[in-house]
Amino acid sequence: MIVVDTNIISYLYISGDRSQQAEHLLSKDSDWNAPILWRSEFRSVLSQYLRKDILSIEDILLIIQQAEKLLTDKEYEISSAHIMQLVKSSSCSSYDCEFVALAQYLDVPLITADKKILREFPEIAKSLESYFA
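Request: output the structure for the sequence above.
Response:
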């Protein structure tokens, strides 16, 4: 079981340099979890691809459907108190702290490509590369 942030989810569903690593991560551990916030962040990422005509609306709706299926029953609401304690003790955004808080709550690694999260929370946050090591 792991927590993944929106970057990792995006790498899995949007073809790019890190897609293969995300696929390898899924094959290694398919129990992906995320705070409900991931949906809004993912829609925001996909909206950029839509506006730049990189992906069609049909492609985007299919990607969203697949991602939501992967995370069915694996989405969590996070305590505001927990999030704000993490915000207070770091320079990370409240959005980033939601992912950290969930990983702490579930006592599992947070897999992320976010350098600030990796730097601020090294005890729980792992890069794709370090998770495979």
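The first strand starts at residue 2 and ends at 4.
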